[in-house]
Sequence to fold (540 residues):
Amino acid sequence: MLLHEGRLVVWVEQERLSRTKHAIDEPPAEALRACLEFAGIGPADLDCIALGSDHDALARWLCLDAEQRRKVLPFDRPERILPADLLDGGAPPPMVSVRHHLAHAASAFYPSGFDRAAGLVMDAMGEDASTSLAVCQNKELSLPVSYGVEESLGFFYEAAALYAGFSRLQTGKLMGLASYGTPGQPMPLEADRNQSGRLWTLRHNARTPGRTGINNREEDLLAFFGEQSFPHCRRETAEVMAYQDFAASAQAALEDAILTLAERAVSLAGSRDLTLSGGVALNCSANGVLSRSGLCDRLFVQPASTDSGVAYGAALVKARELYGTAFQPGEMRDAYWGLESTRTEIRAALDTSGLPYRELAAPALCEAAADVIARDGILAWHQGRAEIGPRSLGARSLLGNPARRATLARINRIKQREVWRPLAPSVLDTHFSSYFDGTPNPFMIVSALVRPEMRRRIPAVTHVDGTARPQLVTRSANPRFHDLLTHLHRKTGTPIAINTSLNGPEEPICLRPAETIRLFQSTEIDALALGDFLVEKPHG
Fold:
C-alpha cells in the first residue's frame, strides 16, 4: 500500500492481481506497481519502502546461518520487491524493516481514531513473539509484554483446525463449526491469569528452537487432541460434524485466553479503548465475546489484521519517524482503499463477454438490484474501489435475501462452501439495534447476538448459536450500497442483505470486471450489477 505523510492513498493485495489465493511466497511487485500507477508516481518519488518484519531477527530465531538466511528468507531483497523494469535504471529507495508486532500494533492504533489505547497483537509468530500487549498514546507505541512463539495462540488454533480436517489457512471453518458444539473437552491452553508468561500447558518442547520447535509443538498438540478429545483421531474429513464439541472447546479456550490478555492490556495502558491486530483478531466470535465482556469501552479491529496489514503498520511507523508533526494518519472508517474499475474497462469487458446489458443511472440501478434480491435472486455486486482485507463489504459482494434459509444453501452451493457454514448480514446503520445486540462494526469482524424476536425474520444470516457478524452500512462510507439496502428495505420490510465474498472456491475476491463476469457466467448467480451496468439471466 501507499501512504502520504501517514494517510492511506491506496492498498492493493498481491493475491487480487496474481489470482493466487494468499499469494504465498509471491513477490509483491505487481501490487507495488499498481499502487504507484494509481498515484501517478514512480519509485524515485518514494521516501522509503517499509517491511513489516525484521528478517535478520527472524533468521536468528530460526537458527539460520548466512547461506540459509539467503535461501529461506529472500523477502527483503530490493530486486525481489522492485523489478528492474520498474526502476528503469534508477536506484531503489531505502528499504527499512519494522518489527512484526510493532507493525501490527501500529496498523490498528493509528487508524483507530483513539488518542490513547491498549493494543493486543495475536498471531502465529513474528520474529520471536506470538502475542504482544501494546501501550499506545500520543502517536507513540511500546510493547511492554510479549509471549514467545512457544505460547502461540495462532499455532494452537491452526493445529486444532488441522485435527478437525481443515487446513492451516481454514481456521475460519473451525470457528464456524464451534457454534454447533458444546465446550468441555480438555485443551492444552490456559489463560495466563497469574501473568507467568505461559499460555500452553505442553512444555517439553517449549525450549526447542526454530522450525524444529514449531513442528514438534504442532505434533505435541495433535497427539494431545488424539489422546484427550473426541473424535480420538485426526482429519476424519467425511465426518466433520463429529468435531463440533472439539471445535467448541478449542474456541472456548482461545476466548478465555484472549479475555485475560485483553484485561491485562487495558490495565497496562490505563485506557479502556482497545485495538486488536494479527491473524487471531479475525476470529469474529472471540471479538464478539470481548466486545460484550465489559472489559473495554471501544474496540477497533483493523479489517486487514493479518500479515497483509503489517505492511500498512510498518509504513505508518516509518511515516511517524519521517514526518513528525506532519504525520496525520487519519481514522479508518471504511475499507474501500483498493482499485476501482473504470466505466471504459467495464463496458469493454461486457462487450467481450457477449452478455446483454443495460446501463442505468445510479438510483435505477440500485432499485433494479434490490428487485433481484427481493424476489430471492442472487446478485453479484461489483462497485467502486475494492475492499481491503478478507471480507467483502459492499464493493465486491455476492448478495441475497436473508429472509429465506434456502438462500443460504443456494449461495453456499454457488461458492462450493460447506452447507453448515454461516453467511453474514449487511445492515443499514439506522436499524442495527433493532436486529442485533452488540457493537456496531463496519468491517464485519465482530459478532453480535441476533435479537430473539428477529431470528425468524433473517434466518439465512442467523447462525445456529443465535449470532451473526453484521456489517454496519452508512451512507457516508458507501452511498450506493446504502441506497441498495434502502430500496431493499422498502420492498421487503427488511434493511438487511446477505453479504458474502465475490469469488469462487479457493480464489481471491474478484478485483477486475473480467473476473466477476467469469464468475457470473460459470455459476447460477441471477444478476450482475457491474458499475452502472446491469446484466440479468432469464427468469425461470
